[in-house]
Design a protein that fits this description.
It contains 14 helices and 23 strands. It is α/β, with parallel strands linked by helices and 463 residues long. The chain has 3 domains: 44 residues; 209 residues, P-loop containing nucleotide triphosphate hydrolases (Rossmann fold), CATH 3.40.50; 174 residues, Ribosomal Protein S5, domain 2 (2-Layer Sandwich), CATH 3.30.230.10. The strands form 5 sheets. Strands 8-7-9-10-6-11-12-13-14 form a 9-stranded mixed β-sheet, with helices on both faces. The chain has a 7-stranded mixed β-sheet with strand order 17-18-16-15-19-22-23. Helix 10 packs across helix 11. The chain binds adenosine-5'-triphosphate (ATP), magnesium ion (MG) and zinc ion.
Length: 463
């Protein structure tokens, strides 16, 4: 009989090593390697899923010419939430596996319970597998969300083999596994939540989804670093990876796609957490700007583009003299490295002496912005706070800033401008190149005043 072997797995990235290491060679994290049992090679040969797939393939699966492959007519099923559908690329694809990650208590179970109920309506049964909460707790949540359903089945179970057995009997059209970290397969002796368990269970779920054409939602917890706990390989296995984010101090929740085999990524779904559950936000710009201070130095509205939707968000900066010897830099909602870079550009190209100043930058609303188009907003907010001069509250800005202090054109300027017009803004500071382009293409259609800038110095002048 083959003897049981163990290996050490990094709990962050799934890196595998035969011996213990203090620092992971895969992701350079410290103290993340944990010993786990791996299935003995001999045993794997009889029960390994790839072998099983292979032996089955002898009879059923054959290479098929592309145009002879049958597809069912109804490709996507709406989730009942336009925001969720937007992120998924228009609805749920049958047989796909969708991973949803998020901080504890952010509302993952709520979102998924609401959608699952809708997914089953008129189409068949749906199965909610919970390893974290009892059936009664889920009933309580459903009551709060006013979900009444005879097609939604709840199963409080953590053994993977049991879950699949129940699914085979019930034949649901969609399954939720809440959460992947609580489920274990008996084929592995390592603890639930360990890398080998997560990886194996996810791969098996994927296999089951493809075989029975069931959509499976997997909920995953997120580590402090923001990655879904367990191996990043999980993200490679599944079809679609969504993150549910937003600070606990805010009522907004943002659903962000980071991988999608059936749709565009970087679409955002925006929700508000209310007593009755998650409610879609139809006008995010309006919501984000609703509490904006007028005539406060350091505040500016930037037009960002997330996926297909433009959004106006307030960006704030606070610059104050540093008494601690070394100036502090803090950024929330934007990349801190990007902020440091822009501060250096401001110092070098515009002569603002920020070396002995603490600088804090914050995106109001708790949203994370990774687009270069917000560069100009950061520059404007910092300069405004430094000089203690408010920026006209009816102005929006966008543009990328280069190392030489040049303002570079960005994508989809016209959409951003339209959003700003809709919300009543009067003036837009934008890259010169975009201005010229817009004047040619949109002749006369633009009502907002366009101010093109080519150099960082021009920006400081116009604001
Ligand atoms: N009565 C209520 N009114 C308003 N909001 C509520 C109410 N009850 C719960 N919530 C919100 O729902 C959130 C919990 O949602 P949910 O259980 O779906 O989160 P989760 O992401 O699944 O959490 P976990 O990681 O613990 O499973 C709470 O943080 C709270 O904001
Ligand atoms: Mg939950
Ligand atoms: Zn690692």
């Amino acid at each position: 009989m083959a003897k049981t072997k163990t290996a050490f797995f990094c709990q962050e990235c799934g890196f595998r090593s035969p011996k213990w290491l203090g620092k992971c060679n895969g992701c350079e994290a410290w103290n993340t390697l944990v010993e786990e049992t791996i299935v003995p090679v001999g045993a794997d040969a009889d029960s390994g899923r790839w072998i099983a797939v292979g032996s089955k393939a002898q009879g059923e699966n054959k290479p098929i010419p592309l145009d002879k492959i049958e597809v069912s007519g109804e490709a996507r099923t709406p989730t009942g939430s336009s925001e969720f559908d937007r992120v998924l690329g228009g609805g749920v694809v049958a047989g796909s596996v969708i991973l949803i990650g998020g901080d504890p208590g952010i509302g993952k179970s709520t979102l998924i319970l609401q959608s699952l109920n809708h997914l089953g309506k008129g189409r068949g049964k749906v199965l909610y597998v919970s390893g974290e909460e009892s059936a009664a707790q889920i009933r309580l949540r459903a009551d709060r969300l006013s979900i009444q359903s005879d097609h939604l089945y709840v199963l409080a179970e953590t053994a993977f083999e049991e879950i699949i057995a129940h699914a085979e009997n019930l034949k649901p059209v969609a399954i939720v596994v809440d959460s992947i970290q609580t489920v274990y397969t008996r084929r592995m002796s390592s603890a639930p939540g360990s890398v080998s368990q997560i990886r194996e269970v996810a791969a098996q779920l994927m296999f089951y989804a493809k075989r029975s054409n069931v959509a499976i939602f997997i909920i995953g917890h997120v580590t402090k670093e923001g990655a879904i706990a367990g191996p990043r390989v999980l993200e490679h296995i599944v079809d679609c990876v969504l993150y549910f984010e937003g600070g606990k101090d805010h009522a907004y929740r943002i659903l962000r796609g980071v991988k999608n085999r059936f749709g565009a990524i970087n679409e955002l779904g925006i929700f508000e957490m209310k007593g009755v559950g998650l409610v879609e936000v139809e006008n995010p710009s309006g919501l984000f700007l609703s509490e904006r201070p007028k005539d406060a130095a350091g505040s500016v509205v930037v037009a960002t583009q997330e996926g297909s939707r433009p959004m106006l968000v307030e960006l704030q900066a606070l610059v104050s003299s540093s008494y601690l010897g070394s100036a502090r830099r803090m950024a929330l909602g934007v990349d801190p490295n990007r902020v440091s870079l822009l501060l250096a550009i401001l110092e070098k190209r515009a002569g603002l002496h920020l070396g002995d100043q603490d600088v804090f930058v914050n995106v109001v609303s708790g949203i994370q912005m990774n687009e270069p188009a917000i560069d100009l907003g950061i520059i404007a907010a910092v300069a405004s706070s430094f000089r203690d001069r408010p920026i006209d509250p009816e102005t929006i800005v966008f543009g990328e800033v280069g190392l030489a202090g040049e303002i570079r054109g960005i994508q989809k300027a016209a959409q951003r401008i339209r959003e700003a017009e809709k919300l009543g803004f009067k003036r837009c500071i934008l890259p010169k190149r975009n201005e010229t382009q817009l004047r040619e293409e949109e002749k006369g259609k633009i009502k907002i005043e366009l101010v093109g800038v080519a150099q960082i110095g021009d920006v400081l002048e116009v604001i």
